[in-house]
Amino acid sequence: MTSRRQFIKISAYGAGAMAMGAGVFGAVKHLSAPAAENLVVDTSRIPTYCEVCFWKCAGWVYKNEQGKIWKITGNDEDLNCNGRLCPRGTGGVGMYYDDDRLQTPLLRVGERGAQTFKPVSWDEAFAYISEKMKQIAKEHGPECIALFTHGSGGTYFGDLLKAFGSPNITAPSYAQCRGPREVGFIATFGEEVGSPENTDIRDTKCLVLIGSHIGENMHNGQVQEMSDAIDKGAAIITVDPRFSTAASKSKYWLPIKPATDNALLLAWIHEIIYKEYYDKKYVEKYCFGFEQLKGHVRNFTPEWAYGITTIAPDIIRETAKEMANASPAVIIHPGRHVTWYGDDTQRSRAIAILNALLGSWGRRGGFFRPEKVSIPSFPHPPFPEPSRSWRNAFPNKYKLADLALASGICEATIPSTARDCTFKGWIVNGTNLIETLPDQKQTLTAIQSLDLLVVIDTMPMEITGWADVVLPECTYLERYDSIRTGPNRKPQVALRMPASEPLYDTKPAAWMAKELSKHLGLEDYFNWTTIEEMLDWQLKQIGSSLEEMKRIGVKTFERPADDLYFSDNEEVEFFTPTGKIELYSTSFEAEGFDPMPIYTPHEEPPQGFYRLIYGRGPAHTFSRTANNPNLTDIMDENLLWVNLKVAKLWGLASGQPVWLKNQDGIVSEFPIKVRVTERIRWDSVYMVHGFGHADKRLRRSYGKGTSDTKLITRVHIDPIMGGTGMRGNFVTFLTEKPAETEVAL
Length: 745
Ligand SMILES: Nc1nc2c(c(=O)[nH]1)N[C@H]1C(S)=C(S)[C@@H](COP(=O)(O)OP(=O)(O)OC[C@H]3O[C@@H](n4cnc5c(=O)[nH]c(N)nc54)[C@H](O)[C@@H]3O)O[C@H]1N2
Ligand SMILES: Nc1nc2c(c(=O)[nH]1)N[C@H]1C(S)=C(S)[C@@H](COP(=O)(O)OP(=O)(O)OC[C@H]3O[C@@H](n4cnc5c(=O)[nH]c(N)nc54)[C@H](O)[C@@H]3O)O[C@H]1N2
Ligand code: SF4
Ligand SMILES: [Mo]
What we know:
Blueprint: H1 4-11, H2 15-20, H3 22-29, E1 41-49, E2 58-64, E3 69-74, H4 87-90, H5 93-97, E4 106-108, E5 117-119, H6 122-140, E6 145-149, H7 154-164, E7 169-170, H8 172-189, E8 206-210, H9 220-231, E9 235-239, H10 245-248, E10 252-254, H11 261-274, H12 280-286, E11 287-288, H13 290-296, H14 302-309, H15 313-326, E12 330-332, H16 344-357, H17 406-411, E13 425-429, H18 433-436, H19 440-448, E14 452-457, H20 462-465, E15 469-472, E16 484-486, E17 492-494, H21 509-519, H22 531-541, H23 546-552, E18 554-556, E19 581-582, H24 586-590, E20 610-615, H25 629-634, E21 639-643, H26 644-650, E22 657-662, E23 672-677, E24 684-688, H27 708-711, E25 716-717, E26 724-725, E27 730-734
Parallel strand pairs: 6-7, 6-13, 8-9, 8-12, 9-10, 11-19, 13-14, 14-15, 20-24, 21-23
Antiparallel strand pairs: 1-2, 2-3, 4-5, 4-15, 16-17, 17-18, 20-27, 22-23, 22-27, 25-26
The structure holds ligand MGD (2 copies), iron/sulfur cluster (SF4) and molybdenum atom (MO).
């Protein structure tokens, strides 16, 4: 049996080296900081929560004798991390020490995209932005400005935009990530899965991973709980065309043909219903539409699914039995990045339904009921009522989307006579849209149509190259931010405070939004003098204070009731139209969508092409960490996983650089080295997302590896909620460097 230590060691290759080496000493290597042996630990510690990914683990920052940031460790009280950070979190120090950081506000001087800027003062930058914003509001209405944000500063720019009169605030973590999952679960259980997910992995007896590659996807608490569950004998079933780290820890690996998961899920539902494995009492008490579902899946037998998925019928039967044996302590994991093929909301529905049949929602070892502290906003005047929103650009479409679509706003920025809402200004905070939204051509066309593009970032990422104004934010280690609150088994809050003065002429987003509000005449919405005053006020409303939080970092509250799981015979009201768990979705039916999931066939790779699939590497978070000196020490390029048979056919060897060309003739800008392996199906190739950076100001990551985004030119939009399916692209290999003219956008 694998122990947690082994699992983490294997999954986070280099985690050990990280803790001892790069994480601590690598950080200082790029500065003229003292040599490692001279470091003396200052016993004082400063609370923070990590910004290297959105799990937001709480930790402590330590400084050395010279008062320089030295290392970050996990906060023992924090339920997101249980006192331990993942390799990326440990390496977060490198964000502070990265010598390629943005240093000063920049104003574009040449053509947009020509990457020519002049340094300006903060005041000049704000004056420019506020003039343009006022002009756009006057000519087109304030709703024509949108905020794209991923990360903490979004709170403040969000308030600024709402005060300005625009409701168009969006994050790529919805339509490019977990949107379909939330819509699928809301339709079924009346509740979203949320972040951190309410999966009770710690106590599960069977965990089914549909693609979700926990262990490479390093969401800290989940990785730890999965290791604990394995130690306690839980069976892991991994469905993935690639032999992932999770697959290597699994009782069953189902190397499914990509894009066919819905057929497998329907066959499992068939088996669980017709073998009467389902939780009868639970289904009878809580579910709506069982008989319709039973009729619907009658013909979706394991034999039927075999022809589609390539997974043998007896394996489908055995794994269904395995889940049933564990019920209700079983989790069919909802995944997180689920925008794959455009029918993703239906796949998420099928996952939700399987969980419902096995009685795992609200049960120990299945899904717990999360709790969180809600923190009141600092008093401000009511926001004005906007007269339009992004939805006006999509009449009668995506009505079930519960959040704004980043890709939708991008599309609605390209002028069209068919729309009454065209966006003219973008404020982009902490999201590298060029590499984040699929279909780069559309993103760049939209950007070229703008009157104003403001980018708030810490690094000179691709998106900053297209900005009119770049506002350099200090890193999370140099600032206060909003109080972290998030759903968990117990409600908790965490504080982030500066461990150091901001380097260079960088500032926190909160300061920027407040200053900009003055230029826009909206200062009443930022009615605090210092951020400390605001945070202290907020903390006092929930029975704490800034002084207390500075000492403890994380505060845990008791749940209002002892209701982590449904109690026996509890009457539960679900927030669905019928008040029940909807196996048959009345909300989908009302909008004209299939009330029960179906399987839709997808296009197969053409002759000589392979499906491009992608995922996460344990040491990186997208492009967020691409240039981080600590993390590039561990992994500085991505590799292309190619099946052994395919490699033989093409005469490819491990380490050989290749360029990729997709079905639309788009060629990768940089080569990627081949990794020949039997750990992937022959019909697919795989790479980690977040590499192949094209901005030369990123000196460590420029041209290292290849960008998957550049090759994702075909997007399959989910008709239910507008998610962008990105795995319907196919690539072939070019073994010679292509001519410049071939590398077009
Ligand atoms: N280290 C690290 N961890 C991260 C992140 C990071 O950047 N770095 N990002 C975080 C974020 S924002 C997210 S959303 C999550 C994403 O993490 P997950 O939700 O786990 O991501 P997925 O895209 O579901 O999983 C990728 C896996 O899907 C497999 N796959 C590809 N096509 C198919 C298919 O058709 N069917 C099936 N069954 N599997 C397929 C791939 O081989 C790969 O193993 O990770 C989070 N954790
Ligand atoms: N091709 C492809 N596209 C994808 C994915 C994929 O796997 N493949 N994954 C999708 C998923 S799951 C998600 S969640 C999204 C994520 O998409 P993004 O959130 O856009 O992810 P990043 O590329 O890491 O961009 C983060 C940006 O924030 C900046 N940044 C880091 N720290 C700070 C800070 O403290 N303040 C500010 N202001 N900026 C900061 C970084 O320098 C970087 O430019 O991408 C989606 N798009
Ligand atoms: S999982 Fe890792 S990178 Fe993400 S917040 Fe936690 S420590 Fe930071
Ligand atoms: Mo994501």
